[in-house]
Every structure is written in C-alpha cells, then in structure tokens.
Amino acid sequence: MIYSIIVGLLAGFIAGKLTRGGSFGWITNLFLGLIGGIAGRWLFTQLNISWDGGIVADIGTSVVGAVCILWIASLVKK
What we know:
mainly alpha, 3 helices
C-alpha cells in the first residue's frame, strides 16, 4: 500500500514535469499521479502489456497513466 502511494506520487511529479502546459499545481499533480498509477495499470492490463521490471516498470506504468489523466484533466479544464 505505501509502495503504491510512493510510486503514484513520484509518477504525478514526473507527469507534471512532462506536461508543463497542463500543470494544475504540485498537489493536484501528485493526487492525479496516484489516480494515474491505477489508470496506468488498468490500461496496460487492457492492452495485454506486462512489465516485469520491478520499480522501474511500476513507475513507467504509473507515469503513462498519470500523463493520460493530466491530459484528460487539461481538456476538461479548457
């Protein structure tokens, strides 16, 4: 549980840096990173993509999900 929270927060931070234009502030980015971690795992499961790379794979999956969530949130914000 704590591991997932830490990975999600890190993913939110990285996704916020990658999507500079769609930034909502660091607290919101971290929260969306937590949601993105869940979304990334769901997305990769739906696409039958499996990574067995440990923490690097978990962070990568979470970052992909967080970027998707931030992108969708920026569309809603407009």
